[in-house]
Amino acid sequence: MPRKDIPLRIMSRNPKIRLEFRESRLKMDKTQKCMGIDLGMKESYIRLVENGHLNPSLKRILVFEKYFEIAADRLFPDLYNDVE
């Protein structure tokens, strides 16, 4: 049974790998684990976000934008395409 105090933002169908997110991480020569340590997040969280299984909160989107120095619409095109 899921905990009620933790909001779930897990996408159940057709996850999309966020290529710009992954490529940016790899260009920085970071593993998901190292990136998680840098940002104070779990490796599993980074993996779920990167693979499109989890949508980050707006606060975390801004953290990723600053970390990669790349606009959010490039890191998460699947989220921005839904708005258009």
Helix and strand sequence: HHHHHH
Query: Which CATH C-level class is it?
Result: Mainly Alpha
- The SS-based structural class is mainly alpha
Report the span from N to C terminus. 35 Å
Features:
84 residues, mainly alpha, 434 Repressor (Amino-terminal Domain), 6 helices, globular
Topology:
Elements: H1 19-27, H2 32-39, H3 43-50, H4 58-68, H5 72-75, H6 77-81
Helix pairs in contact: 2-3
Describe this structure in words.
This protein is mainly α. It has a single domain, classed as 434 Repressor (Amino-terminal Domain). 54% of the residues lie in helices and 0% in strands. Helix 2 packs across helix 3. It is globular and about 30 Å long. The termini are far apart. About 6% of the residues have low confidence.
Summary of the model, kept short:
The protein is mostly helical and 84 residues long.
